[in-house]
C-alpha cells in the first residue's frame, strides 16, 4: 500500500504525517540521517532566499520559501519528538501562550494605543519571562552577523542613555577614525589598521541608526550597484578582442557609474 493513500486531508495533519513517514525506517535515508546540527546551514540559506523573494516582491517565490522554512520548523520538531523532548504541537501551544501573554492590551486589561506603549509592555513582559538575565546585553545571539549585532548593541546601549545626542557625534567620530586609519597605514601597523577599520564601520552604523537608516539595507543597495557596474564592464569587455589598457578600463568604469549611479 502506498503511504500517500492513507494521508489525512487536513493540510496540517497531512504534513505532520509526511514528516513521520519520511523519518521512519520505510522513509527516506537522507531525511532519517538529518540532525538539528546538520540542518543549520540550510535553514540560514532558506531565510536569505525568503528575504530575497520579499525584496523582489515575488509572491510565488515568497510562498515557496515560506514553505521551505516551515519544513525546517517541522523537521526540527519531528527530531525533537523522536528524542523525547517536545512535539510540533507543543511548539504551537507555547507560541499561542507567548502571543497572548505579550499582548495584554489585546487579550487582557492593559491599554496601549501607540507602538511606543506596546514596546514598553513588551520590555516589561520579556524581563519577567527571563529573570535570569542580569544584563541588558544578555540574550543577543552570539552568532548574529556583525552588522546586525552592532545595531542590537547600540540600540540596547541607547536604553542606558549611552548614546550620541545627534548624528553629528558619530559623523565626527567617523572622521576621527579615518584619520587614525591613515596614521596606522603610514606606520604599516596592520593590527592597528584592523582595529580602526572596525571602529570606523561601527561609527558608520551608529550614524545610520541615528538617521533612521537601516545600515544593512544601505549596504545591500551599494553591493547591488557595484555588481551591476561590474556586470556592465564585463559585458563591454566581451566585445573586445584584445586585452584593454588600464586607461580603457577606467573609461569603462566611468561609463558604468553613469549607467548605474
From TrEMBL:
InterPro entries: MazG-like_dom (IPR004518), NTP-PPase_MazG-like_C (IPR048011), NTP-PPase_MazG-like_N (IPR048015), NTP_PyrPHydrolase_MazG (IPR011551). The keyword Lipid biosynthesis does not apply. It comes from the Bacteria. GO terms for biological process: dATP catabolic process; dGTP catabolic process; dTTP catabolic process; dUTP catabolic process; methylation; response to stress; TTP catabolic process; UTP catabolic process. CDD domains: NTP-PPase_MazG_Cterm, NTP-PPase_MazG_Nterm. GO terms for molecular function: methyltransferase activity; nucleoside triphosphate diphosphatase activity. Pfam families: MazG. NCBIfam families: mazG, PRK09562.1. PANTHER family: NUCLEOSIDE TRIPHOSPHATE PYROPHOSPHOHYDROLASE. This is Pyrophosphatase. It comes from Methylacidiphilum kamchatkense Kam1.
Amino acid at each position: 500500500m502506498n503511504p500517500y493513500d492513507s494521508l489525512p486531508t487536513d493540510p496540517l495533519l497531512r504534513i505532520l504525517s509526511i514528516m513521520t513517514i519520511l523519518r521512519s525506517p520505510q522513509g527516506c535515508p537522507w531525511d532519517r540521517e538529518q540532525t538539528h546540527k546538520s540542518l543549520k546551514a540550510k535553514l540560514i540559506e532558506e531565510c536569505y532566499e525568503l528575504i530575497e523573494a520579499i525584496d523582489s516582491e515575488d509572491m510565488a517565490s515568497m510562498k515557496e520559501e515560506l514553505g521551505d522554512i516551515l519544513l525546517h520548523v517541522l523537521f526540527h520538531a519531528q527530531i525533537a519528538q523522536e528524542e523525547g523532548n517536545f512535539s510540533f504541537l507543543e511548539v504551537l501551544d507555547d507560541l499561542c501562550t507567548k502571543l497572548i501573554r505579550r499582548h495584554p492590551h489585546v487579550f487582557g486589561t492593559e491599554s496601549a494605543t501607540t507602538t511606543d506603549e506596546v514596546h514598553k509592555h513588551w520590555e516589561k513582559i520579556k524581563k519577567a519571562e527571563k529573570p535570569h538575565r542580569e544584563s541588558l546585553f544578555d540574550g543577543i545571539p552570539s552568532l548574529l552577523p556583525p552588522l546586525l549585532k552592532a545595531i542590537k548593541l547600540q540600540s540596547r546601549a541607547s536604553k542606558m542613555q549611552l548614546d550620541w545626542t545627534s548624528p553629528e557625534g558619530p559623523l565626527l567620530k567617523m572622521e576621527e577614525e579615518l584619520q587614525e586609519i591613515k596614521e596606522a597605514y603610514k606606520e604599516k601597523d596592520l593590527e592597528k589598521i584592523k582595529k580602526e577599520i572596525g571602529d570606523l564601520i561601527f561609527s558608520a552604523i551608529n550614524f545610520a541608526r541615528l538617521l533612521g537608516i537601516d545600515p544593512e539595507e544601505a549596504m545591500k543597495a551599494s553591493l547591488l550597484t557595484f555588481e551591476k557596474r561590474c556586470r556592465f564592464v564585463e559585458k563591454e569587455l566581451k566585445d573586445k578582442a584584445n586585452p584593454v589598457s588600464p586607461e580603457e578600463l577606467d573609461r569603462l568604469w566611468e561609463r558604468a557609474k553613469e549607467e548605474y549611479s
